[in-house]
Amino acid sequence: MTVICATAKFALTREPGAVSFLRRSLRWFVAALGLTAEPMAEDMLLCASELTTNSVLHAEGTKIIVEASWTARGTLRLEVSDTDRTTPVPTERPAGDCTVGGRGLPILAATGDWGTWVYHWGKTVWWEARRPSVPIVVG
User: Fold this and answer.
1) Residue 14 is inside which H or E element, if any?
2) What is the spatial distance between Cα 38 and Cα 33, in angstroms, rounded to a whole number?
3) ∠ at Cα 86 (81, 89), nearest 5°?
4) Which of 51, 70, 71, 95 is the S-S candidate for 75 at Cβ 3.0 to 4.6 Å?
5) What stretches in the chain show pLDDT beneath 70?
6) Residue 78: per-residue pLDDT
7) What's the CATH number for 4-130?
């Protein structure tokens, strides 16, 4: 069982300004948790930007729902949901490739674990990273 210690949820309009608004809001969230100095907090901000940008550029509909949480096991979790049911597929880019785009999913994989849940109404792409110094308590 995962115990959620703190959560923040945002309903965004699918427009370019949503990405910067979300980053500012998530900076407040990690600051309130005292995680500002944690590398995984910066990773979460980067991944939030990547996933929200993907939704702004590629999703259907007008809404994006983002939920960030901090668990008792020292895990930062991010979920970005939109109404597009298309599952994201990582794209490999050769070194020196100047093409814009296609690097977001490899960034997710490099900074934590990620996956996708597809529903009848759309999808949720999630990302999470665990603070290495927090022991897992079983029992």
Assistant:
1) none
2) 11
3) 100
4) 71
5) 1-4, 90-103, 132-139
6) 95
7) 3.30.565.10
